[in-house]
Design a protein that fits this description.
It contains five helices and twelve strands. It is of the alpha+beta class. The chain folds into two domains: 92 residues, Pseudouridine synthase (2-Layer Sandwich); 125 residues, Pseudouridine synthase (2-Layer Sandwich), CATH 3.30.2350.
């Protein structure tokens, strides 16, 4: 079983490095090890912390102290509350966008600029595609609805930074290289999402033509470069204010990230 690594622990807070491939909690449809099960086994008292999730099948699934999530295929740092007071505090911090998260991602191509910002609403691909004929520029729709063939997942729709529906992602190039086998250009980006929508980083990077390497959902027809067997996305750090002091917790790049 894949096991999280403990980065930091106190009486109120647990910070872990989740390995890629480990689901945060059961989806109610499949039986497999999860991070939530690991937490409950190691910290049984956390069964009383937080709020359970009711699956579409009506199953009550415990989320012990879990205040945010990472995709199954994404590695990196996560916060887990060990008390209900800390749980409510962290939830509020996330709602008010006071917690700063930084990700690393290997993407296809070399961006034309060294940094940028994506402002686009995240919508279900089916809804996005259905709305396409009504939009001013259908060609933009075709480009941004990166899941047009499978009609799965999410897509980006243009909006303004003042729109409450807007999702905002800031990125900066950290390295540009070529894949050794194919010679294709790839870039390492540092990414700071200012909002926390479903698949936000993956959708936004796909929408600007630089999807995450080996992303089976948003770049299904692209070759898997740099030997990645999963989307090349890692939650590298998180900054949260605890007792009035900003605390930074970091998870080093995993072993499948090129050095």
């Amino acid at each position: 079983m894949l096991v999280p690594e403990i980065i930091f622990e106190s009486d109120e807070l647990l910070v872990i490095d989740k390995p890629a491939g480990l689901i945060v909690h059961s989806d109610g449809r499949t039986v497999e090890p999860s991070m939530a099960e690991w937490v409950l086994k190691k910290y049984p008292a956390l069964a009383e912390v937080g709020e359970p999730w009711i699956s579409p099948q009506g199953e009550k699934i415990l989320l012990p102290g879990i205040v945010h999530r990472l995709d199954r295929t994404t590695s990196g740092v996560m916060l887990i509350a060990k008390t209900n007071e800390m749980y409510r505090y962290l939830k509020q911090q996330f709602r008010e966008r006071k917690i700063e998260k930084t990700y690393l991602a290997w993407v296809y191509g070399h961006p034309e600029t060294s940094s940028g910002q994506v402002v686009a609403e995240i919508v279900r691909a089916e809804i996005f595609l259905a709305a396409a004929p009504a939009l001013e520029n259908p060609s933009v729709v075709a480009k941004r609805a990166t899941t047009s063939e499978s009609k799965k997942g999410w897509a980006a729709r243009s909006t303004t930074i003042d729109d409450r529906r807007a999702a905002i992602t800031i990125w900066q190039v950290r390295k540009e290289i070529q894949d050794k086998r194919s010679g294709e250009p790839v870039s390492l980006l540092e990414i700071k999402p200012e909002t926390g929508r479903t698949h936000q980083i993956r959708v936004h990077l796909s929408s600007i033509g630089h999807p995450v390497v080996a992303d089976h959902l948003y770049a299904p027809d692209r070759p898997s470069l740099l030997n990645f067997q999963r989307p090349a996305l890692h939650a590298s750090s998180i900054i949260v204010t605890i007792q009035g002091q900003p605390q930074t917790y970091q998870a080093p790049p995993p072993s499948d990230f090129p050095k």
